[in-house]
Amino acid sequence: MRIKTSQLFFFIRRLNNIFIIYLQIVSFGKILIVMKNIYTVLFISLAIYCRVTAQTPTVQDCLGAIPVSQQIYYQDSSFTGTGNYPDEISSAGCPASCLLTGEMNDVWYIFTVQTTGNLCFNIIPNSSSDDYDWAVFNLTTATCADIYSDTSLMVSCSFSANSGTTGANGLDSITCAAASAGPNNANIPVSAGETYVLNISNYSATQSGYTLDFSCTDSTIISGLHQAKNQAKNISLFPNPVKETATISFMADADKNYSFQVFDITVKPVLEQDIGRIPAVGKSEFSFSVFTLKSGSYFLVLYADNEIAGRTRMMVIK
């Protein structure tokens, strides 16, 4: 909870059995309330409007991190600023964090490890001249609020000044890279059930976007949702980009009830529809309108009996 206008102050003084309460709001001057009789419990109702609001986390805040469960995640455009909760990452340097500028035009991702192994990823800029910095924190037994002060949560970090592809890809043995280091870090050993957040900061401040590629990993990541036992195969969407009507195409492993949801980049569901029961014989297709969606990047999640059966990226143009 944060007070937008922090100009409200109060002071209580006792003088000869008189309680004097000063309340000060900068924009309204001073209000002096004098109350006698110290033996009486006083209830004061002040008709003063104070706007107090809770900051809503965005994808640029750890609490609003984007869930990732696919091997390839396309970030079509980068971000500006630091969200509603700035200074979530220490700029003190290793071992707390190598990000000496803290958060900078950043975004957060969150994922849970399904199988024990080595986590490996690459951040591949759409423009090879872009410089991305990043840090991974283990939040299995911690919260976003702990990241700033608990140095043990940082498991890998890169502040390399090199542009182009960077990541914990096993091409080097370093785990906390300063500006003078190369762009590659060691793989991250992970165990099933652990939850991690990844912060990606855009030092170049461009809007070109990038691809977050986990295909080099030998562990499986999930976003906290159960994977379907019978995965849909060869899921695709066409046309893509789509302007009016899109068609989802897939082959199922079993006879189930299918449905789908479309999420925007803040992981807010913006469209959902039932497909119905489809026999697992051959390819199935289902067409739907994107009339209500604005231009932008989305991802579609296909469900089989309410469990995730597949995902695919969708671009809408108007």
What would your notes on this structure say?
- The model is unreliable at 1-54 and 224-231 (pLDDT under 50).
- The chain has three domains: 2-53, no CATH class; 62-222, Jelly Rolls, CATH 2.60.120.380; 233-316, Sandwich (Immunoglobulin-like), CATH 2.60.40.
- The protein has no helices and 26 strands.
- Strands 6, 8, 11, 12, 14, 17 and 19 form a seven-stranded mixed β-sheet that branches.
- It has 318 residues and is mainly β.
Number of helices: 0
Structural class: mainly beta
CATH class identity of the largest domain: Mainly Beta
Any idea how many domains? 3
Q: Helical content, roughly?
A: under 10%
Q: How much of the sequence is in beta strands?
A: 35-45%
Number of strands: 26
What is the residue-averaged pLDDT? 78
Order of helices and strands: EEEEEEEEEEEEEEEEEEEEEEEEEE
Multimer state = single chain
Q: What distance separates the N and C termini? A: 38 Å
Overall spatial form: globular
Largest sheet: 7 strands, mixed
How does CATH name the architecture of the largest domain?
Sandwich
**Radius of gyration (Å):** 25 Å
CATH topology of the largest domain: Jelly Rolls
